[in-house]
Amino acid sequence: xxxxxxxxxxxxxxxxxxxxxxxxxxxxxxxxxxxxxxxxxxxxxxxxxxxxxxxxxxxxxxxxxxxxxxxxxxxxxxxxxxxxxxxxxxxxxxxxxxxxxxxxxxxxxxxxxxxxxxxxxxxxxxxxxxxxxxxxxx
Length: 138
Description:
The chain is of the alpha+beta class. The chain contains 3 helices and 8 strands. A hairpin with a 2-residue loop joins strand 5 (100-106) and strand 6 (109-110). The longest helix has 14 residues, at 57-70. The model has no long low-confidence stretch (mean pLDDT 97).
């Protein structure tokens, strides 16, 4: 069985962003030479996320509004964690959105359903963070 590992690095200009990384992930799959198997993509930082959804701007705005309603950034004093930092909301948003995505690889392509795309969700940005891509198969 073949295996492939690559780290992708992201540094957002804003505190919170959703970035479509499907093309970068497909490029990793192409580099791997693996035609059949599984691809794991996971955020290696506790305040960022990897998830699969539709790439539609209205949906992205809805996600932002929904996440902010569930775990508002301010006031910072509402969170015990924030006695050390000011990013408790980012930790909670990451927990809601998830750490990783696993995608089947078929004929050298990501085996998606209609409209599925892979996203990097940043909830405490403006610094470099990494994403791990691990592919196993034949």
